Task: structure prediction
Amino acid sequence: TVNITIDGKKLQVEQGITILEAARQASIKIPTLCFLKDINEIGACRMCLVEIKGARALQASCVYPVAEGLEIYTQSPAVREARKVTLELILSNHDKKCLTCVRSKNCELQSLAEELNIKDIRFEGASTNLPLDDFSPSIVRDPNKCVLCRRCVSMCKNIQTVSVISATERGFKSAISCAFDRSLEEVPCTMCGQCISVCPVGALREKDDTEKVWSALANQELHVVVQTAPAVRVALGEEFGLPIGTRVTGKMVAALNHMGFAKVFDTDTAADLTIMEEGTELLNRIKNGGKLPVITSCSPGWIKFCEHNYPEFLENLSSCKSPHQMFGAVLKTYYAEKMGIDVKKIFVVSVMPCTAKKFEAQRPELSATGLPDVDVVITTRELARMIKESGIDFNNLEDKDFDDPMGNATGAGVIFGATGGVMEAALRTVSEIVAGKSFDDIEYAAVRGIEGIKEATVAIGDMKVKAAVANGLGSARKLLDSIKAGEASYDFVEIMACPGGCVNGGGQPIQPSSVRSWTDLRAERAKAIYEEDASLPIRKSHENPVIKEMYDKYFGKPGSHKAHEVLHTHYIS
Ligand code: HC0
Ligand code: SF4
Result:
C-alpha cells in the first residue's frame, strides 16, 4: 500500500490503482465522461482533472497511478474552473436536444451539467447539423450528439475485434465515423449494439420500431402476439428503478397483456425446442461423421461476424434457427393451424435484449411460410418506453403467467440468456437421451461464469464430448483462431456475440459508467437467470409437455422433414 492524501484526507491505498479509484474508495466523487473501467481508460476528455501538489499541470485522475506521498486536490478553484470550461466546450458542440433524446434522464452529459451546476455556456460552438446514419436495421448513429469519448471505438475494436468505427483526428473537425464516411450498413458491423451500451449520450441508439408495434396493435384485423427473450425479464426492471438483477417476469407479462397483445408467449419455450433440434443435430453429426464442431447459431451478431470474418466456419453452424425465429415460424404454422387463424393475420413481435435480432428478423433465410417468421423486433429498452407511454404503473403490477398453449418453458430455456446456458441446456438433454435415464445432477458449473472462453469435457454415454463456450466477439475470434491453427478441437461450441451473453446484450437497459465500472452487470443479471432456472419445476427441455405435444401433433420427431422445413435454415454468405 501507499500513503496519500485527497482533499486533506489521509488514506492508505493499494499501490497501482488510479487516483480516480482511490478517491472512489474514500467516497470522493470525481466527475468523468470518457472513462469506462477496463474498456476505455484513456484520459481523453479531461473531465476528471485533479491538482497534484508539485505537478506542473492538472492531471487526468483516471490514468494517473497513486504513489507514496501524493497530495491530491479534487475541488480546488483551478480544478473547478478547468472542469467547467471543459464541460462547457463539450456542450457548446452538442445539439442539446434533451427533450426529445432517447437518453434523456439516462445521459452522462446531462448528469454532468447538473452535477457541475452549469448555468450558462460561455462558448459559441460549431453549429452541428450533420446527417444521421440510420441506414442500418439495428443501429442509429447521430454525430450531432457525439462527445468524442471513444468508448464505442474501444468496445468495437478491443472487445469485439470488429473495428468498424474509429476516430478521425482532424483537430476541431475530429469525429467518430466509419472508414470513408460510410454508413454502418455498408461496413462489416455485426449490429451487436455493444457500442450503444457504452455510449454515454444519445449518439448511438437502436433503430426505434415501437411505432410499428403500436400500429399493429391498433389494427383490429391482426392477431398480434408477443414473445419475450430469457434475458429481458432480468433487466427490464432497471428501467423502472429496480435494483440490477431483479426478476420481473410476472410484471412484464402483465404489462404486455395490458398493452393489448392477444397472447404473451415465452421465447424460452422455443429455446426448449431448439435444444431438441440442436441436440439431435449434434448426435447425428457425431455418429455420422458430420462437420464438427457444431457451433450454435442463435446469436445473430455472431452469425454476421462469422459471415464476414470466418466464412470457413459457416458449414459448422447448427442449421437451427434461433429460438425466437423458431417461435415465429411455429406461430405461423402449427399455432395458426391449431387456432384456425389465417397466417397473414398473425403478427409476431419479439422483445429481445439484442439489436442484431432486428437485422436477423429481416433475413430472407428466416421464413417458413413466405412471410417473415418474426414481423418486428423491439429491444428491452423499447419495451420499457412503450410501457411508460402506456401509462402503466409497472412496479405495482400484479404478476401474470405467460399464455397457453405455448406458455410453459423450462429452466433450460431460461438459462439461454447467460453465456454457457445453451451449452448447459443441451448437455442436460443430450446426456439423458443417450443414457435413456434421468439424472439429478444437472448443473454444469464449468460452462457458467463470465470468462471469455470456457471449456469442458463431458461424458455422454461412452462418448467424451469436448465443449467450448465463447462470449464476446473478441473471445470468439480467439477460439476460432485456435481451432483453425489446430491447437484445439471440439465437438460442440457455443458462441454469443455479447460479452456475458444475452443478459448483457446491446438492447438491454444502459447503466452509466458510475455504475457499470464498479458493478459487473453480466454477473448480476446472470445470477437472476440461474435463480429463475432453479425455481422452475421442470428444468430439462425434453421434459417440457408443450414441446412433447408439438412433436406428437405436428413435427413427428426432432430432425424430421417437417421440423427441417419450419425450424431450420442454412446460412450461406
Ligand atoms: Fe437471447 Fe436466444 S438466449 S439469443 O441471448 O439462443 O437475444 O435472452 O432470446 O432467439 O431463447 C437474445 C436472450 C434469446 C434467441 C433464446 C437464443
Ligand atoms: Fe461495432 Fe457492434 Fe457497434 Fe457494429 S454494433 S459498430 S460491430 S460495437
Notes: Residues 152 and 195 are 4 Å apart (CA to CA). The radius of gyration is 25 Å.
